Amino acid sequence: MFFIRLADLAKELNAELHGDGEISISGIASMQSAQRGQITFLSNKRYCKKLLVCQASAVVLTRADLEFFYGSALIVTDPYLAYARIAQLFDKTPKPAIRIAPSAVIDCTACLGKRVAIGANTVIESDVVLGDDVVIGAGCFIGKQTHIGSRSQLWANVSIYHEVEIGQDCLIQSGTVIGSDGFGYVRGSGNWVKIPQLGTVIIGHRVEIGACTTIDRGSLDNTKIGNDVIVDNQCQIAHNVVIGNNTAVAGGVIMAGSLQVGQYCMIGGASVINGHIEICDNVTVTGMSMVMRSITEPGIYSSGIPIQPNKTWRKTVTLVMHIDDIRKRLKNLERTFKNIEE
Fold first, then answer.
1. How far apart are CA 274 and CA 290, in angstroms?
2. Using CB atoms within 10 A as the burial measure, which of 135, 141, 294, 325 is most buried?
């Protein structure tokens, strides 16, 4: 089991120590469940009262909240960020693979870096390049001429099509497909004619992609994901989409083809974004929004309808269905009042 002195943890977090630095910390837990030997954190004043009954050996909090706790503490500016860093220290998640499994099928032309691990039944095709310390989980498929940068990890059953480029320190969760054909067809003589997708997918450094997400290859140009982008589970990123650095995409988002998303954007869960439009830098789109036109100014944008009691929702829908009739009646009233005034 991993232990760390509270004083050493303070140095790790660049935090101010308050209390006994010799306390041994063996884990992190919520305020409700934390026990002796564990550390917890307070990031919301609404939970200050819970500190009175908290059993944790130490708490991470701000200086303003120190008055609510009488035990040992680490004083930081952002307790939630400190929690994330402590959680990394105590993370017990195993590697997707620890060696090259005998059942892995690796083409003789593939170039493997130092300390590469490849799980059981994984297929590595011709001319693939894997950087140092790359870990590929069980049952993965890595297509021809794909390049994966150093220290990147793929969990089980990830499929990477041919000629895809993935940067360093990336993490790709199970079931994700990268480089599949974009949805390109044209109708000819009553039938759909497939358009071969001739581009690829280029993913930057330190990108994390959630489980069962699909990123399609470009039709002519490439689909591009910038550095430090995080994409949640079950997202659809269509062909030729470009996502700028440090953008976050929550679960279930659908992005249509040739969309361009700027840097430092946040896209809320279950949002749908039209293709062939642009979203500028520093835009937040709240959950379940429908983005049909370009966004040219930074800010927060919403279109989802909050939940209502069913009776209220039915009345709202009825009004929406009759909104054109209401508009016409209002115009007639305006004309009538204008004639009376004249």
1. 8
2. 135
Inform me whether the pLDDT recorded for 265 exceeds 90.
Answer: yes
- Report phi then psi at 142, rounded to 5: -120, 110
- Residue 320's alpha-carbon distances to 207, 250, 266, 296, 316, in angstroms, are 42, 29, 29, 28, 6
Distance separating alpha carbons of residues 47 and 49, to the nearest angstrom: 6
- At 295 the three-state DSSP class reads strand
Catalytic residues: 239
Place of tokens 């909240």: 65
Q: By the 8 A CB rule, do 112 and 133 touch?
A: no
Contact of 2 with 37, CB cutoff 8 Å: no
pLDDT at residue 337, as a whole number = 85
pTM of the predicted protein model: 0.90
Distance in angstroms (rounded) separating the CA atoms of residues 104 and 194: 33
Query: Mean pLDDT across the stretch 252-270?
Result: 98
Average pLDDT over the chain reads 95
Q: Is the dihedral of CA 311, 317, 319, 322 positive or negative?
A: negative
DSSP letter string, 76-128: -S-HHHHHHHHHHHT--PPPS-SSB-TT-EE-TT-EE-TT-EE-TT-EE-TT-
Query: What would the pLDDT profile of 245-260 be if each residue is shown by its tens digit?
Result: 999 999 999 999 999 9
**Beta carbons within 10 angstroms of residue 116's beta carbon:** 22
Q: How far apart are CA 111 and CA 251, in angstroms?
A: 34
Angle at 233 between CA 140 and CA 253, to 5 degrees: 130
